[in-house]
Design a protein that fits this description.
By secondary structure, the protein is of the alpha+beta class. It is built from 8 helices and 10 strands. The protein has a domain at 182-293: Cytochrome Bc1 Complex, Chain D, domain 2 (Orthogonal Bundle). The protein has helices at residues 67-72, 75-79, 117-129, 159-170, 182-190, 260-265, 272-280, 283-293, and strands spanning 8-16, 19-21, 30-31, 55-60, 95-97, 103-105, 201-203, 206-208, 216-218, 236-238.
Length: 296
């Protein structure tokens, strides 16, 4: 369930002076490696990057375990972390519309663009495999093109099925930390990493040890993919939860980093001071810190 990050997708859009357009209903927001046109069916769905797109961004598959716990974290618990934490670090919530149309704090997705697990699941059904629902009704077929043979005039999956799939995902348990590397945990805090990667957030009386504040942070030009989602600009990303990091083989949003150290050294923007502190550590201490992260 996204455990090792070996699957990727290609997000697309069009960026102009007027703003960012994800091209929903015009072939976006993802490019597709295959389409029904390959079967000789002419209904406007073509493989590849949609016409008009001038922005592409590779996205690593997210981990799904622990999603039920993240879904249960109150908005106010996430908002509470949106304060200045020193070293220029100050996250902000991505306020997006929930299933009821009201604004909620986003928490799922690389840019925290989905407020609830059901909405996240419904968006994945539509964007990755083209199955529409009440929560994600617009398909990838360009507006005005022919309807595919057998294509439904309404949602292609009922809400009960979306809810059942979300309920299954919600029950996937997070991994248990195997950490015995207390020296590494101390270094993780002292370098400033916990300014964003909070060890835990509360869902009711339960501590959720995800190592994330679920807020958006500016990560600098090197990680700017130019994609806008909600209030998140191109260089802004949700703090990635670190639980289960030991099983990831590709790190960062596009999988460019193949080691924990490479991922840390790619941090910029609000994280540049923490990155510099990490880089200045003696080699043995860097190993201790990485060993701690690889135990999560």
């Amino acid at each position: 369930m996204g455990r090792n990050g070996l699957a990727t997708v290609l997000r697309v859009g069009r960026l102009t002076d007027a703003g960012f357009d994800p091209l929903v209903g015009r072939g976006g927001p993802f490019g597709h490696s295959h389409a029904v046109s390959e079967l000789g069916v002419d209904c406007g769905r073509e493989a590849g990057i949609p016409a008009g797109a001038n922005v592409t961004s590779v996205r690593n598959s997210p981990q799904l375990f622990g999603s039920g716990l993240i879904d249960a974290i109150p908005d106010k618990a996430i908002r509470a972390g949106a304060v200045a934490r020193g070293d220029g670090v100050r996250g902000r919530p991505n306020l997006v519309r929930g299933p009821d149309g009201r604004k909620r704090v986003g928490r799922f997705g690389w840019k925290a663009n989905a407020a609830t697990l059901e909405l996240f699941v419904a968006s994945a059904l539509r964007n990755e495999i083209g199955v529409t629902s009440l929560l994600a009704p617009a398909g990838s077929r360009p507006r005005g093109s022919n309807r595919c043979p057998g294509e439904s005039n309404g949602p292609e999956i009922d809400q009960d099925s979306v809810a059942a799939l979300a309920a299954f995902v919600a029950e996937l348990p997070p991994p248990q930390s195997r950490s015995s590397q207390q020296a590494g945990a101390v270094l993780f805090r002292e370098t400033g990493c916990t300014a964003c990667h909070l060890p835990a957030l509360k869902a009711g009386r339960r501590e959720v040890p995800l190592y994330s504040d679920l807020l958006l942070h500016d990560m600098g030009r090197a990680l700017d993919d130019r994609v806008v989602q909600g209030v998140a600009g191109g260089s802004e990303w949700r703090t990635t939860p670190l639980w289960g990091l030991r099983d990831r083989t590709r790190l960062l949003h596009d999988g460019r980093a193949t080691s924990v150290e490479a991922a840390i050294l790619s941090h910029g923007g609000e994280a540049k001071t923490a990155r510099r502190r990490f880089h200045s550590l003696p080699a043995a201490q860097r190993r201790n810190l990485i060993e701690f992260l690889r135990s999560l």
